[in-house]
Each structure stands twice: as structure tokens, then as C-alpha cells.
Amino acid sequence: MLNYLIKRILQGVISIVGASAIIFAISRLDDPTLLLLPIDATPEMVENLRQRLGLDLPIVQQYLIFLGNALQGDFGNSYRWEQPALALILDRLPATLELAFAGLVFALALAIPFGVLSAVYRDSWFDNFAKLFAMLGQAMPNFWVGLLLILFVSVNLGWLPAFGREGFDSLIMPAIALGWYPVAAMTRMLRSTMLDVLDSDHVRMARAIGVPNRVVVWKYALRNAAVPLVTMLGIYFANMLSGAFVVEVIFAWPGMGRMVVEAMFARDFPLLQVGVLFSAILFVVVNLLVDLSYGVLDPRIRHD
Amino acid sequence: MNADPQAKVGQPVLKVDDLRTHIFLKRGTVQAVDGVSFHVNAGETLGLVGESGSGKSMTSLSILRLIPKPGARTVSGRIEIDGINVLDLDEDTMVRDVRGKLVSMISQDPMTSLNPVFSIGDQVGAAFRFHDLVRGRSAIRDAVVNVLQRVRIPSPERRLDDFPHQYSGGMRQRVVAAMAIACSPKLMIADEPTSNLDVTIQVQIIRLLREIQKETGVGLIFITHDMGVAANICDRVAVMYAGRIVEIGDVETIFDNPSHPYTQGLLDSIPHLGRRRERLYSIPGNPPDMQNPPSGCRFAARCPHVMDRCRSEYPPEATVAPGHMAACWLVGKNE
């Protein structure tokens, strides 16, 4: 178990370093100095700035300097905000975590009952409704769901705030917009795995010795369907953490994703690098947690 | 409940009368079980023999009221277990008082019949927990150890928290048997419990089932497609073909004096050690389409002795000898 954990953490570190190298290389394809200086800057001023930012050095050397500093917790200052990039990202991280977690809770709260009940009542009106709902969910991009929610719930009905991060009310709509697609995907997957499990010999055996239906469905069968569900959930949660920027922009949510996108447009390399690095770290951590949860959910996959 | 089992031997624990279970598809109706009648006495083993699709598993699921929903439905008949017609009961009563307590099942494949993500103790304990027979964690644990001992699982107290994948195939089948006998049912349905096991383990399981029967006086329905296994364990044999019982009788009678051509065909298909034959015999043709079963005898198209009458009229159940019935015009010729 400990060996497995160490191996997995090392693998994660390699992934994160790899991600940092890629984002570092890609962001060096463009020169930010012209964006940072006034439009009438002289060539000397440009050269000066390039030297000050270390952009005149060979790219490999630049990367090694970046890595060396990063190991000491120094990711440089944001060009745009002129503050430590790490502090800026860490400041936004809680908002992103909060939003992704809320999106996940919303997705699970709908997907589990939908998936289970449409398998139990296969081909019923509920199953058809859930199928339609899942199809709509998978066909609607989250920015559009977000815009519709703002239009109907905020503008027309005035029930919830359309933007910002102030209290629970402002979290509801972004969470729904973010969780909408995963609800659909997880409902469909859970339905099909539950159908398989409910048809299995051990479920019939449990029924034959008088285990009540609710226990068979919600304990015996659902636990068997949990491994694929958790796998999918991990992928979506990692995506929500690193890819929530569209929803963050629509709802003016002060999260990491929005800041990274803004950094990209401003060629704010230090900020961009930290942002991407954090996305990579979150992705690796979530995947590790998912893998560790397999052992808890299914005794056959326990790591010795 | 724990009265002397010997006292009840000979009393019927199950009476099935004209059972019809049909599967309703968009394309039409499959008459999976179509007018089946038989009984099982306490302490007795009835073999239900037939090829796949003959309706033997559907019959057993009908008795448990566990036929797959939606689609299949028992449309008519009577199923009396210990004097109670289970077709009159609602689902709650079936769960609380019938399944596990009056009738239980030992299912086909030991490798898939146990839930892979729950411990053995948890799964066997369910039988006690949901029938409120034993209360409290440690009492249930003791009951589980006790029932695992009865199916001869060595040092069960140490293996209680293990999971099914840590048990061998034969041991898993014993666990399944333990779940089935936990609440001392009057009737047990064993659906091909040995077909996926090694021959040596098959023998052990059959021996175990016999011992359990001797101890408890439980009535046993043993479903198999293997005439050899049936000969080994059963007191009486019912041969099913295309949703109906074509012949039923004592095991010796069925083997010595098979009266239905289908039974004769089945017995001829058994390979015999030391008997030289060019090829193993098999009954020519296929079972009929059960969506549109033939109006006459369902075996007519494959029968070597077929007569004109067979194709138009279904033969009545004719008594060959007391306790020996065959549904064939050849038997009823003199009527």
C-alpha cells in the first residue's frame, strides 16, 4: 500500500513537471514585451525590459531558472498585477474549489436518484423523462445553461443574484451550470451499470433469501455500480476544477480559471504558469484520490 | 419451526397446479411455462430436467415470484407452499414471510452468485437480519458462524470478514447453500448448482445437499439438464419440454421405463462408459418456437414415433403406473 502510494506520488510529480515544461514552452512562442510597454516605446526600452524579465536568455536556461525558483516557492511577479503570482492564484483557489465542489454535489444529488430509479423502473415514464433530461443535458453547453439561468432566474424572476460571490445564493446558479453536463453523463452511465447489476445472479440470490427491494437496490446493487461512477466523477471533478473558467466568466465568479484566462490574453506568463501548474496538481490529486477510493469500494482492487 | 423433521416427511410442501408464466414481448407472447403441475414432498428431491429454454428456470422463478419484470407475468395457476398460495400474496409479504423463510434458492453459478463487494458474513447475515430472527450484531455473527459450520466451511469465525473472491468455487457454493438454509425454509430450489464446478466438487456439493436434507427435511427441487446428475440425487424426476412437463415419476421408473419419446431420447444422449458407439446420439431437430407453439404435441416434429393425431391434439397426461405420468398418445393408446 505504502509502496503503491509512493509510486503514484512520484508519477504525479513527473506529470506536473511535464505540464509545466509544456506550458512554459508554449507561452514563450509569443513576446509579451510589446504588450507591456506603451505603444511608442523605443527599441532600447524593449531590449531593457526583455533583459529585466530574463527573456533574452536561451529558453532552456529560462526554464531551469523557473524550476529552481519554483522549488523555493517563488513563481515570479505577475507582469500585469505586479504582485507575486503564487499569492494571486492562492487567493482565487478557494473560490474555484468551492464552485467545483458545489457543482459536483449538484451533479451527484441528481444523477444518483435519476440513474438508479430509471434502471429500477426501466421503460417507465420516469425512465423516459430521465433519458430526455440526460439528452438535453449533454446537448447544452454550460455557458448556454448559465445564460438561460441568468435570464430566467435572475432577470425575469429576480430570485438569485446573476453574478459575484456573496453567500450561498450566488453559488447556486454557477453550480447548476457547471454540474449540468455531468448530471446527464453520470445518469446515463449509472442507469446502464445498474441495469447490469440488477440482472446479476447475486442480486437474484439476495432477493431469493428475502432481502427487501430497497436494500437490494440502494445497498447491494448501487455499491457494485460505484466504481465506474467514481471514475467518471473524478474526471468531471478534475475538469470542473481546471475548466470552470467559462462558467466563472459568465457569473463573474472570482475563481482561478477566470484569472488564468485573463493572464493568457495579457501574456502574463508568471501568472499563467502558476495557474496551469495548479490545475495540473489538482488533476493529479483528484486522480490519486479516485484510485485510492477503488480499494475502499471494491475489495477485489485492494492494493497490497 | 424446529419440530421433528421426520414427522413431516411425505407431506407435500409444494403443490403447483396448472402454472402458466408468459413473457410478453413487442413481437408476441412467449409461453415459457404453459400449464405445469407437480408437487414436492417434505424431505424429497424432485429433479426438474430439460434442455435450456424448456421453462425449468422460469418455473422456479415463478415459485419464488421473482420472474423478470417487466415483461414476464404468471397469468394463471396455483402455487401452494406449505399450504399457502403465494400467488395471492403481495410483494411485502413475499419479502417478509416467504422468500428465505418458506422457500429459498441456491443459484446456478457460485462464481457470480455472491456479491463481490460485501463480506461473506454480511451476505449470509442478511438472511437473519431481514427476517428479524436474530437481533444484534454479535448474535447475528454467531448465527452466521453456526450456519457456515453446517455447510462444512472450515473455521468460519476466521473467514467471516473475507470477501467472495478470497473463497474457492466449491467454498462459494457452500456459502450460497448457507444463505439458502439460514432461515430453515420448507422448500429449496437448486438451479443447476453444480454445473459450473469440477466433478469432484460437484460430488461434494451433492453430498452436502443430501446431508442438509436429511437434517432438516427440506423439500428440494433440483434443476438440471444433466440426466446423470438427476439420477444421482433425485427421488423423483419431472422432464420438461417446451414449457410443459412431458413425463414425471420415480427416478428408477424414469430411467428403467421411460414412456415419453423425449425422455427416451434424453436417456439415449447420455454417454456411457465402455459402450462402443460410432457417434453420441442426439435428438434430431430443435425445440419449437414458443411464440407460436404447435397446436398438437410439442415434440411431434422431432418424435420418431409421431402419428397424425400427435400433430393436431395435445396428448393428455396419461398414467403409466401409479405415480408415473407421461403426456403421450402412445401411452394413452388404449383409451
Spell out the blueprint of helices and strands.
The complex is a heterodimer of chains A (304) and B (335).
Chain A lengths: L1 H26 L5 H4 L6 H11 L5 H13 L13 H36 L4 H15 L2 H15 L12 H30 L2 H8 L4 H12 L1 H18 L1 H6 L5 H10 L3 H29 L7
Chain B lengths: L11 E13 L4 E13 L3 E5 L6 H9 L7 E10 L2 E2 L5 H8 L4 E4 L13 H10 L7 H14 L5 H4 L9 H13 L5 E5 L7 H18 L2 E6 L2 H7 L2 E6 L2 E7 H6 L4 H8 L39 H5 L5 E4 L2 E3 L9
Parallel strand pairs in B: 3-8, 3-9, 6-7, 7-8
Antiparallel strand pairs in B: 1-2, 1-4, 4-5, 9-10, 10-12, 11-12
Notable features of this structure?
heterodimer; A: 304 residues; mainly alpha; MetI-like fold; 77% helix; flat; B: 335 residues; alpha/beta; Rossmann fold; 8-stranded mixed beta sheet; 4-stranded antiparallel beta sheet; 11 helices; 12 strands; 23% strand; disordered N terminus
Q: Say what the CATH topology of chain B is.
A: Rossmann fold
Radius of gyration of chain B: 21 Å
Low-confidence stretches of chain A: none
Count of the separate structural domains of chain B: 1
Would you give the CATH topology of the domain at 92-254 in chain A? MetI-like fold
**What is the helix fraction of residues of chain B, given as a range?**
25-40%
Coarse morphology of chain A: flat
**Uncertain stretches of chain B:** 1-8
Overall CATH class of chain B: Alpha Beta
Strand content of chain B: 15-25%
